[in-house]
Amino acid sequence: MSEPISCTIFLLTLIILLLSPTGAQNSGNITVGQSLTATINGSSWLSPSGEFAFGFYILPNTNNLFLLAIWYADIPNTVVWYANSGNPVPQGSLVKLTVTDGLILSDPQGHNLWNTSTYSRSSNGVSYGFMNDTGNFSLKRRNDQNPVWQSFDHPTDTLVPGQSLKMSVVLNSRLSETEYRPGRFQVQITNDGKMQYYVMNLKTEIAYTAYHISDPSNAGNTQKLVYNESGYMYILRKDGSMYNMLPDGYTPSEDVYQRTTLSHDGVLKWYSIPKSSIDDGWKVFQSEPGDLCNTPSAPNVGTGICGFNSLCSIGNDLNPTCMCPPGYSLQDPNDIYSSCKPDFKLSSCEEYAERAKKGEYKLLRLPNTDFIYNDYERLNSSDEAECQNACLKDCFCAAASFNPNGGSIGCWKKKTPLYNGKTDRNVQDIFWIKVGNTNLTSDQYNPNDSFPPLKTKNKVNSSFKALLGGSLSVNLLLISAVGLGILFMNHKKRLRVFDESKRKTLREYRNVHCFSYQELKEATNDFEEELGRGSFGIVYKGIISQGNPPICVAVKKLDRISGDTDKEFKTEVNVIGRTHHKNLVQLVGFCKQEDQRLLVYEYMSNGSLADYLFGDLRPSWIERVQIAQGIASGLLYLHEECSTQIIHCDIKPQNILLDEYQNARISDFGLAKLLILNQTNTITAIRGTKGYVAPEWFRNKPVTVKVDVYSFGVLLLEIICCRKSVCPKLIEEGGAILTDFAFDCYLSDRLDSLVNDDMEALSDIARLKRFVTVALWCVQEDPSHRPTMRMVTQMLEGLAEVPNNPPCSTSFSMTSQC
Description:
Layout: H1 2-19, H2 21-27, E1 29-31, E2 35-37, E3 45-46, E4 52-58, E5 65-72, E6 79-82, E7 89-90, E8 94-98, E9 102-106, E10 112-115, E11 128-131, E12 137-140, E13 149-150, E14 158-159, E15 163-165, E16 170-174, E17 182-189, E18 195-201, E19 206-207, E20 212-214, E21 222-227, E22 233-237, E23 242-244, E24 256-262, E25 268-274, E26 283-288, E27 311-314, E28 320-323, E29 328-330, E30 340-342, H3 349-357, E31 361-365, E32 369-371, E33 375-379, H4 384-392, E34 399-403, E35 410-414, E36 421-423, E37 430-436, H5 460-469, H6 474-508, E38 513-514, H7 517-523, E39 530-534, E40 537-544, E41 551-558, H8 566-578, E42 587-593, E43 596-602, H9 609-613, H10 621-641, E44 656-658, E45 664-666, H11 706-721, H12 738-747, H13 751-754, H14 759-762, H15 765-778, H16 789-796
Parallel strand pairs: 27-36, 38-42
Antiparallel strand pairs: 1-11, 2-8, 3-4, 4-5, 5-6, 5-7, 8-9, 9-10, 11-12, 12-13, 14-24, 15-21, 16-17, 17-18, 18-19, 18-20, 21-22, 22-23, 24-25, 25-26, 27-28, 29-30, 31-37, 32-36, 33-35, 34-35, 34-37, 39-40, 40-41, 41-43, 42-43, 44-45
Helix pairs in contact: 10-11, 10-16, 11-15, 12-15
């Protein structure tokens, strides 16, 4: 009897294992109710073969941020699909399979971030999910072969064998190699049957004229793009014929993985990797278009592949590169595809003639370069000098090209903004761009290298030539040569000593660039243009010309750092250098040379929030809302999401800067530990600025991140009201301190007085009241009563409930309501 019983037990155990969740996962089937949590080394739902995984993909080089995605389980960093528009989620987020809404993605607080019911043909009746060996995740009903929803119908930036691109379905590039949010380029088959590549305006989401068309000879006859499971890709035309998309003679193999990805630079690339040697990595065996800079037709509107005033060039790897010409710099230093703005002052036509006579403008010659669609006037001239003079005298002329021979002889003036620029060896026309007559060099440069630096070249060579050409004796020449040789050797020796010192410093500071004091002195033109003065010293504008292209920077010359704080300086600079968030001002580099301490930041073109809020014109309500939410997001990152917790200690509108797109960027974070205390009246005996300092500073209580929450509450009220926290004008209205006045208006339901009858804000009364309530909770005297910045962020965005009736704190004045 024992043997049959043992067999029965074994069979029952085997059945239980097969029916368990693990068994379902291995078979590719996902039952309703199953869920995954975003954790390090968390589980995923695998396809039957184990080749593909669905779940939370941890993003490299982030602080535990995850992407709900599908990826090759055994091939590192190869994501083929992602949800939630590529937006990452924090650790603790959850995805769950439900009957009514299919897949639901929620954050750690349970708020719904994304679900499949928005995109499915029916929002009810999901029976199970299935992770297919083709890389397709589908939701199905019992006894129904057609999926309710499947990832193949909603591609991101990648196609895999077995997936087709149907009419009007979009393949969208990523924003960058590491950011999965939608980028500037799209591929789709339009309603008129053309497979076209587009440049997108990310702000307006408008697609400009196509920069490439696949199968152009049959444009208008395309039905869909087919990528069959065998690995063949072709365009299926409406008449049943096919247009092969793979190289001639290329034969897919079952022993090779394939994928096709629209890269962040707008090139569609075909990849392959042998299944037996995945460690070799993916290899590109085809790309389209081959030369992205030479677009087939002029766009009616838009910038072209690169931004306005930017030049496109193709390297040996056929990848396009965008760069600003000399005299121009990126509007957004973090985006190489952004437009380039002039680094010189543009004047009106009324003033132009006088400025031109004074020589304030000149033309730089850029070989093998042209902006081919910007012509607005042609001169029948065969003289280069005449062409240059015509452009210099014309206030509308931003550039000019000259063709001394061929079918288009003459001089062509070009208007601004320039677009669809390119640098290519096939361009033979002579081209000049107009710039401010500063220290730019007009010497020719290699268009395949970076643009020439903005500094003038050393004059030693020309001086030496003049010396040789003079009438000096041979002996004098020999003496001069010996003297120059000695000077050169001494200079070279000093450079070796400095380079070794610089290398040693760079080893200590691994996260940011190390500048010499002389480099920053030249970059700022001997600290000529002052941008402002703050708690830490004076800030100067500069141009770093070592990169490609040159970038504008803000150089902060610290005057409150002692010579014996090298260890603290090194620690804090490394901490600041590791931070990276869209609402923080990025540290570019630093200088630590003798007693000099300088920090180099990206330049913020729209100044400080103080100037923005307290100027003559009141900013719009929606802009203020976005700025407040951006600051909250940046503080949340400093407090909870970066590798080392950072307490700012001096949140105020002067330390919030605005970039080219009016995004709020927190500056001066991480510098509090570098301060020498009690050396300036602008800082209290503790740290921070009067009017923004939390009460615990004065009571010898432990300082936590809640001091920043208090300061943010004051700042939030300033953003709501466009009034300073301490303002004499408020005396006439019942309170000199904004927090007191806001609390009184809140209790007496007089928000119209608080915002000074701002009708745009009052028409959004629910959000206005929510923002005011959040601010009053933030400025509570007891730190334990203040919310965390995570909670603040969620309340501002309406993702968390805001408690009503914040208590009347003794930090408020004695109002009639308290």
